[in-house]
């Protein structure tokens, strides 16, 4: 594939054994630091994500289009880990952040893969854009709409104030519009527009969430005598 042909492992600059050794040397202390330096729940999520990426997502890329959904879970777990690192628990906020990252990845990756269909086909990868192009576009649009719903769910779950769904609506509607154009036009131009929109949409949405986060109730203190 053109997008990966210059990577050190592909070019033979390093051996598969060295690559696995380096990955192990990063993974083991990384999980240990998360477990003992943060909390066991965050460490367990990190370990699970390594397993999911290496043992499920990567092999599935040559077997089934299900790899895209598994990969979306892999991408959704890091913000969940951030939440558990800060709070020590898996609650509504963790699942909301994970859900946003999960849904965002479909317009992002499906639009990207649309322009790389020939590369993926030559490489023997089983991607929606190659084997199920109609599904690829439908799923991207569906998850653009899901971002609107998830933004509306944030105040319901007490993660943000009700300001968020209002101020996030323009950018959510815009990415949905581009998702619809990708669905109807099915060309490189519409896929590129959707892909580049996804690059700024996610950080802006997260910044808006931070701005509109729900403040904890102020401790009233001891009753006055």
UniProtKB/TrEMBL annotation:
Task: Name one cellular component (GO) term.
Answer: membrane
Q: Which domain of life is it from?
A: Eukaryota
InterPro entries per record: Protohaem_IX_farnesylTrfase, UbiA_prenyltransferase, UbiA_sf
Record field: transmembrane: 12-35, 41-60, 67-86, 162-182, 194-211
Keywords (alphabetical) are: Heme biosynthesis, Membrane, Transferase, Transmembrane, Transmembrane helix
Cellular compartments annotated: Membrane
Q: How does it sit in the membrane?
A: Multi-pass membrane protein
One Pfam family recorded for the sequence:
UbiA
Q: Select a single GO molecular function from the record's annotations and give it.
A: protoheme IX farnesyltransferase activity
Q: Which GO terms describe its biological process?
A: heme A biosynthetic process
Instruction: Name the NCBIfam families on file.
Output: cyoE_ctaB (TIGR01473)
PANTHER family attached here?
PROTOHEME IX FARNESYLTRANSFERASE, MITOCHONDRIAL
Q: What is this protein called?
A: Heme O synthase
